[in-house]
Amino acid sequence: xxxxxxxxxxxxxxxxxxxxxxxxxxxxxxxxxxxxxxxxxxxxxxxxxxxxxxxxxxxxxxxxxxxxxxxxxxxxxxxxxxxxxxxxxxxxxxxxxxxxxxxxxxxxxxxxxxxxxxxxxxxxxxxxxxxxxxxxxxxxxxxxxxxxxxxxxxxxxxxxxxxxxxxxxxxxxxxxxxxxxxxxxxxxxxxxxxxxxxxxxxxxxxxxxxxxxxxxxxxxxxxxxxxxxxxxxxxx
Length: 236
Known about the structure:
By secondary structure, this protein is an all-alpha fold. It has a domain at about 75-220: Tetracycline Repressor, domain 2 (Orthogonal Bundle), CATH 1.10.357.10. Helices cover about 65% and strands about 0% of the residues. The chain has twelve helices and no strands. The radius of gyration is 22 Å and the shape is flat. The termini are far apart. Mean pLDDT is about 85; it is low at about 1-5 and about 230-235.
């Protein structure tokens, strides 16, 4: 008991940032199920009550984690006058964050945090839409389409990375269907070799390229000039 008292941290010394750091560590190591206030208290050598002083609920903590992931994604980002390059850069930043923190990404990337880092992302995406030649509702609509596509894909990828049912291999993910009567599913049977080895980074690159190509057509249809530079969509 005396040893436990000595290792306990001083009352009032716990900060929100420390709690969020610990929450991210727990999720990185053990998945979302590890994110409990009792586990956080043990991780921080504090009591769950101390955590509740900073976060009224698990939902509040997840919102703070969403802001932290946004901050990680945006670290070092500088907008340019090339809207295509900027949207590509921002998209791959979200993807790499999901790769680094899959459980947290799966749980929070689609949350509306109303936080400063989220606002920074909104500002820069809308800036890119403005540079592309969109204003007002069309710009906001494309902002929504872009973020839903990017964050939805990154969140889903994070979920795949932490899924106990997924089998990871060097090149991608094994996706195998073995129906009793393959003749009932001729198209799936014909594509089974390709289905068996899906590289979701490659899929995301294709999604992003298709969206950017469609956005160029949308802008062109409005008669606004755009300037684009060649961008490598591989994210490498």
